[in-house]
Amino acid sequence: MLWSFLLVTWFCAVHGGPVDTQRRYTDNQYDEGHNDSLKIHSPLTRPSETELDFDEDYAVDEGDILLPTDRNAVKQLWPKVDGALSVPYEIDVGLEDRTRDIQKALNMISEKTCIRFSKHANETDYLHFENSNGCASYVGCLGGKQALLVGPLCKPGNICHEILHSLGLYHEHSRYDRDDHITILYENIASGKEDNFLKKDGNTLGLKYDMGSILHYGDILFRRKYFSRNGKPTIQPKESEVKIGQRTHLSKLDVQRLRKLYHCTPT
User: Residue 168 pLDDT more than 90?
Assistant: First the structure.
């Protein structure tokens, strides 16, 4: 028995821990909040938009919302210039290989709204796409060079999700009226992660709750298990057959929300 124990110990020391051969992810799993394991050295890879929640270099909320270090910073909309809105942006040299994905994400918004995006020239306020472990953004225009973080596993839909944060929108699940539509299962939430499910006193713009928003925590595969301590769901729709969240397109209500927020004309 002792010889067998020593042999197993030697094998693990030389070859590392057990290899996870069951890691099968879809684009939808690489999203903020979902986490198969909260252990820092787990063999499972943490989803990219959740990674920052466990990174001491960043203060984040809800998995992917960056918190300003300046507590007096005022979140606001990006300003129009001569009646038109064009948000300047710059892609860091370390992210040049993700230019196509970032452009797709920008187009998802500009094709449906009056919001345009232009390459940064000499503007004071602009978005700066930066390479990081996960995807995250500040909410609204904070002024100056504003980081928008893109992780290696974030697809165009995930990046679009972050751009919407930068334009001033919060997660749909944090609306004050969310309890009419979903149930937060606090008994399944990991200790210390409860703040990720707090409601926010935001402006709903008079639009109804959107279960299919690109800004909603979703339910594809494991995605109801955001910050789960036991592998069980942390979000449950009130209606059992309703699908929640996706990362492929702007929903009709996402489009309406942006158009109302930035006062887009019908044309």
Answer: yes
